[in-house]
Specification:
It contains no helices and eleven strands. It is mainly beta and about 120 residues long.
Length: about 120
Amino acid sequence: VQLQASGGGLVQAGDSLRLSCAASGRTFTNYAMGWFRQAPGKEREFVAHITWNLGSTSYADSVKGRFTISRDKAKNTVDLQMNSQKPEDTAVYYCAAARSLSSRYLFWGQGTEVTVSS
């Protein structure tokens, strides 16, 4: 499984940004696809996930109502739409894949950096 994240950049507080993760290497039936982030000096944290088959989603409380995760089965992509961004959203964002919702995330992309200025 290969995951390629893109779309990071520098934005101002209140702006929007859309991250994309291109997934390849196999079919993703039953997989869970997630976005995580790691801010400077902090541990990596969960942001959101989506199940490949049904598109069920879950979000961290810190991003609920502002971020939206989606997947495109035809393109094999998983996107993270980030609206109303805050300086505390500044982090390196990683996409990841797990064989199921109850499995560990075994496959990780290389990360894309997001900086939100105040």
